[in-house]
Specification:
This protein is mainly alpha-helical. It is 74% helix and 0% strand. It contains four helices and no strands. Helix 2 packs antiparallel against helix 3 and helix 2 packs antiparallel against helix 4. The longest helix has 35 residues. The protein is elongated and about 60 Å long. The two termini are 33 Å apart. 2% of the residues are buried.
């Protein structure tokens, strides 16, 4: 514990030594490609959000009507849009870390 405290007291940060980049693809992934990736990301996010909202609406309608099978089908259809929203939410942070 004392070593850890002395390292922090000295102000040493091992993450200052890490400089992630795209390596040989840095010139390829310039501002134009970054803009294109941003547009594709935004479009994919809108499509996935649409499917997520549609699935929740179908689930609510089936529950209101009392159709158990339709409810379970709509509930099982929410899996991939939910995972896709999580992945699409993480992608900008990864791109920002790599492009820095």
């Amino acid at each position: 514990m004392a070593l850890h405290s002395s390292v922090l007291a000295d102000g040493f940060n091992p993450f200052n030594l890490a400089h992630p980049s795209f390596g040989p693809f840095t010139s390829l992934l310039g501002p134009k490609v970054g803009t294109l990736l941003g547009v594709v990301w935004a479009g994919a996010f809108c499509v996935v959000a649409f499917y997520l909202i549609e699935g929740v609406a179908r689930m609510g309608k089936a529950k209101r009507v009392g159709a158990y099978e339709a409810y379970e089908e709509a509930k099982s259809g929410l899996g991939w849009p939910t995972v896709a929203v999580i992945i699409l939410s993480i992608l900008p942070f990864l791109f920002g870390a790599l492009a820095k």
